[in-house]
Give the backbone structure.
Amino acid sequence: MSDIATDNGGWPLFEVFIRSKQGLSHVHAGSLHAADAKMAIENARDVYTRRNEGTSIWVVPSEAISASAPEDKGALFDPADSKIYRHPTFYTVPDDVECL
Amino acid sequence: MVHEAGSSDEMRERFDAWVAAENKVEPQDWMPEGYRKTLVRQISQHAHSEIIGMQPEGNWITRAPSLRRKAILLAKVQDEAGHGLYLYSAAETLNVSRDQMEADLMSGKAKYSSIFNYPTLTWADVGAIGWLVDGAAIVNQIPLCRCSYGPYARAMIRVCKEESFHQRQGFELMMALSQGTAEQKAMAQDALNRWWWPAVQMFGPPDNDSPHSAQNMAWKIKRFSNDDLRQKFIDMTVKQAQALDLEIPDPDLKYNEETGHWEIGEIDWDEFWAVVKGHGPASRQRMANKRNAHADGAWVREAAVAFAQKERARAQKAAA
């Protein structure tokens, strides 16, 4: 896996995830190039957290990310459209019964 | 979104409809080659502008008149570097490598905003750049936050958020000078005299001489025409100049009661095109600095690679 620079190529690409506040999850902020993961964290600090945006940084080699294919969008996500009974608003209950 | 199915005409039609309905395009989606090429050109040009744009202001960091101004200027120039990096990342999602973009900048094949080919002769120029150049950039960039290409739009949202301090610090600097001694006020006026027309030219050629505008508007890469954006900038800046008690260097400037807009005299497009073609007062210096910085930094990049490999080998040996 190319999460480290090689002699002949450029620096690998890392995806950067930032936790903005303790208690919240890390969210994708962008990407950057670095010679290795340690440098990626140092650079992410300068590029993505100049204004108190973060309390924690994750960096992941972009190559390590597997993504669903755009053409599979329908097959993957359309079936959920017809399953409206998965939402609480599907059910009719009397107004005067509490805690439902 | 549009994926690969059917003839290229059909895909093109579906793409146009998708974009016309205000949907976003993401990196993995199918897109016409012209759309991709336009974005690569525009985003990389924008990134190069941020990077080269560090030079005119960086010129004054060591000579800032107070620690407060120095800290502000350092933060601003660091922001420009950051903005360049967000934009390079956005362009890379379109299958163009960072190395290629850098090479195109240094060979002169890729352009950057011609405004950065003007020299910063006095401290007031730092104020004029923040007020006028960043002011114009914001007018240009706010509509780009709604660009149809997702990664570009997201990068622009970040850039715009950070850029508003750039414009305000520039205005504040100009205000300090214009309310200062007679010499300081003259310095501010001189800076406005030199930066006004290049700032007005930042919006690009007039609409009747902007051949790709219509297609870019249809693709929702561009939201307003060059002339509309320029007018917006003029209306807002004339009022700000009045607040500074400085005079816009245009004898033909007048207010049109009917339209409610300020009208300016003729723009010197010959100068604009000469600067675009690399004949600006500081063009050669900017390019030479960029090439030298790249060459001088080679050993740092090589050392970083060697160190990363050594650390990796050490960790593997320890694990074995």
Observations:
- Chain B touches chain A through 29 residues (CB under 8 Å).
- The beta strands of chain B are 254-256, 261-263.
- The CA atoms of residues 5 and 11 of chain B lie 7 Å apart.
